[in-house]
Design a protein that fits this description.
four-stranded mixed sheet, 19 helices
Length: about 525
C-alpha cells in the first residue's frame, strides 16, 4: 500500500518507477522575464491540475510543471502554436518544451513578487571553505558540504525529465522502449552539475511472458538479425543520435562515440542545461547504481564521507574530469565503501552478506555473473557502530595512507583485503564482473600521490589545534584539508613535512611534476 511505502525507505525500483512516471506528466516552459507566477499557474490550470512546479535560471527563466494527469499535456499541446518561420525554418517535432511570451508585455511599474529560483549548481570551493569555518565540528562541516553539493529534489526531476524527452524520440522507432538514468543521477552520490548518464531499455517488463504461454503456437516477431549485439547497439544509437541531432529541440554538440567499449552518444541538452551520455541498456551498471543506492540509504555517514573524500580528492588533483591515469570518482567511492565495511563493528554490510539476504525476486544473473542482492532495506540490520564522522575522516586517511597496495587488493564482496590477482598498482575488484579491476587505469605515480596526500591529511587533522585556529581566524578541520597543500603557508608546510619520511616527499614531488606533465597532455579515450 502507498501508506506502507511512504513510512519505509523505498526500494530503488520503486523510486525509479515513481520518478519516470512523474517525468511523463511534466513539461518545461521557457518563460518571459517578467513572469507572474500566479497568472502562469492560473492559465496552466485551465488544462488540468498542476501537481507541482518550480522555476530555475537557464539563459533566462524556465519553469518545470508537473501535471496530475498525463492528458493535461495533450490539452496544452493542442493550444500551442508552431514558431513562425521568418528567418529560420523549423523541424515540426512537437515535444514537451514550450516557449511562453506575453501578448501584452507589462509596463515597468508593476510590483512583482520575486520568483524563487531553484539553484542547479553548487557553490565554488572558496565559498564553501568560508562556510565550513563557521561550523562547530568536523562532522557538521561534512554534513554542510553534503548539503551544498548533493542533488536537490528539483535537479533530480530535471534529470528524469531529460531522460523522458529522449524517450519520446526513441519511441518513434521502438514504442515499448524507456530511457532511464543510471549512475550518479540515481545512486544518491550525484553532485549538482554532474552529467546525466542514461540508457535506452527495450526490455519488456515481463508483461508478455504470461500471455505467450496460451494457445497452441510458439509466436515471435520477425526482426532484423545482426551478427552481434554490439552491432545492433551501434546501429540503434547511430540512428537515435542522428535523430536528436537533426530533430531534437535544444540538443546540440551531438557526438556519436560508437567504437568505445560501451558505445554512446554524447550531447548537450540546452533546455535542462545537462551534458548527457546515452547508451544502450547495461544491466550491470543498473545493479551498481542500486548497490550504491542501498549503501547510501543505510546510514547518513556514508554519503557525508563519500562527498567529503571526493571533494578533497578534486581539490588536490587526485581526480580529474578528463579520463586518464588518475583515480575515478567511482573507484574512490568504492574505496570509501570498503573502508566502512572494515570498521569494527562494520558500518555497512559486504556484498556477500547482502546476497545472503536476497529473496527470489532479487535473483539476477547477468552474462553469467551473479548480481543478486537484497533490495528491501528493511531486511538489513542497522549498524551498531557509533563512530563520529570526525573519527572516520581521520581514520580513512590513516587506513589508506598505510594500506599495503603492493600486496593487497580491495574486495567489496568479501569486505576483506585479498591478495592482488595481477600487478596493477591499485586493484579494486568490480563487485559484479568478478574478473575486472575497476581501477586498472591508475598508474603508480598517481597512487603514490594519493597515499602522500592521505598521509598529509591525517597528519594535519591529528596535529590540529582547532580552538587556536578559530581564534586566529584560520581555516580548521575540513576547511584546512580543502586548501591545496603548499598554497596556504610555506613555513607551516615545512613543519608538517618533518613528520613525513624524505622518501614520501620525494615521491610526492615526483608525482606532482608528473601530474603537471599529464594534465598538459591531451587526455584521450574513456
Amino acid at each position: 500500500t502507498d501508506a506502507e511505502v511512504s513510512t519505509r525507505k523505498k526500494t530503488f525500483a520503486e523510486v525509479q518507477t515513481e520518478r519516470l512516471d512523474q517525468a511523463e506528466r511534466t513539461v518545461l516552459i521557457k518563460c518571459p522575464s517578467k513572469i507572474n507566477e500566479k497568472k502562469l499557474l492560473q492559465y496552466l490550470s485551465s488544462h488540468g491540475n498542476v501537481k507541482s512546479h518550480f522555476f530555475f535560471e537557464n539563459c533566462g527563466i524556465s519553469a518545470l510543471i508537473e501535471f496530475s494527469e498525463k492528458s493535461s499535456i495533450a490539452s496544452l499541446q493542442d493550444a500551442v502554436g508552431i514558431p513562425s518561420a521568418s528567418e529560420h525554418h523549423v523541424v515540426p517535432f512537437k515535444s514537451r518544451l514550450f516557449t511562453f511570451t506575453l501578448k501584452n508585455p507589462v509596463s515597468q511599474h508593476v510590483e512583482e513578487t520575486p520568483l524563487h529560483l531553484s539553484p542547479q549548481s553548487h557553490i565554488p570551493v572558496k565559498d564553501l571553505i568560508e562556510k565550513l569555518c563557521l561550523a562547530d565540528s568536523i562532522s557538521s562541516q561534512m554534513y554542510l558540504l553534503l548539503n551544498e553539493y548533493q542533488l536537490t529534489e528539483e535537479n533530480i526531476r530535471l534529470r528524469f525529465l531529460a531522460c523522458s524527452l529522449v524517450r519520446d524520440f526513441a519511441r518513434a522507432y521502438f514504442p515499448d522502449s524507456t530511457v532511464k538514468p543510471f549512475g550518479s543521477s540515481v545512486n544518491t552520490f550525484g553532485k549538482l552539475g554532474s552529467d546525466v548518464d542514461m540508457f535506452l531499455d527495450f526490455r519488456d517488463t515481463g508483461k508478455h511472458a504470461t500471455k505467450m504461454k496460451k494457445g497452441p503456437f510458439e509466436m515471435e516477431y520477425q526482426m532484423k538479425r545482426l551478427p552481434s549485439e554490439r552491432l545492433a547497439t551501434q546501429r540503434i544509437l547511430s540512428v537515435i543520435g542522428d535523430c536528436l541531432d537533426n530533430f531534437g529541440p535544444g540538443c546540440v554538440n551531438v557526438q556519436k562515440i560508437l567504437n568505445a567499449r560501451c558505445p554512446l552518444v554524447k550531447f548537450s541538452h540546452q533546455p535542462t542545461g545537462f551534458q548527457c551520455d546515452l547508451s544502450v541498456s547495461n544491466s550491470i551498471a543498473t545493479r551498481s547504481s542500486e548497490l550504491l543506492y542501498i549503501y547510501g540509504c543505510l546510514d547518513s555517514r556514508v554519503r557525508a564521507l563519500v562527498f567529503t573524500i571526493r571533494c578533497w580528492a578534486r581539490v588536490h588533483g587526485l581526480t580529474n574530469s578528463a579520463p586518464g591515469t588518475w583515480i575515478t570518482n567511482f573507484s574512490l567511492t568504492m574505496m570509501v565503501m570498503f573502508f566502512l565495511q572494515r570498521r569494527s563493528p562494520p558500518i555497512i554490510p559486504t556484498l556477500d552478506q547482502l546476497k545472503e539476504l536476497a529473496g527470489e525476486k532479487d535473483k539476477h544473473i547477468i552474462g553469467g555473473y551473479d548480481c543478486s542482492f537484497v533490495s528491501d532495506l528493511r531486511k538489513i540490520k542497522p549498524t551498531k557502530n557509533t563512530e563520529t564522522l570526525d573519527v572516520l575522516l581521520c581514520e580513512f586517511f590513516e587506513y589508506f595512507g598505510n594500506f599495503d597496495f603492493r600486496k593487497n587488493s580491495i574486495n567489496l564482496r568479501k569486505g576483506k583485503e585479498v591478495n592482488k590477482p595481477e600487478s596493477s598498482p591499485l586493484y579494486i575488484w568490480n563487485p559484479f564482473e568478478q574478473d575486472l579491476n575497476i581501477s586498472k587505469n591508475v598508474n603508480q605515480p598517481q597512487l603514490e600521490k594519493f597515499i602522500a596526500v592521505a598521509r598529509e591529511s591525517a597528519w594535519i587533522l591529528q596535529k590540529e589545534d582547532k580552538t587556536q585556529q578559530m581564534i586566529n581566524k584560520e581555516p580548521w578541520g575540513l576547511a584546512d584539508l580543502l586548501i591545496p597543500f603548499g598554497k596556504s603557508n610555506s613555513s607551516k608546510m615545512k613543519n608538517r613535512m618533518k613528520g613525513i619520511g624524505s622518501e614520501t616527499i620525494r615521491s610526492l614531488l615526483d608525482s606532482l611534476k608528473l601530474n603537471n606533465a599529464n594534465s598538459q597532455q591531451k587526455a584521450v579515450g574513456k
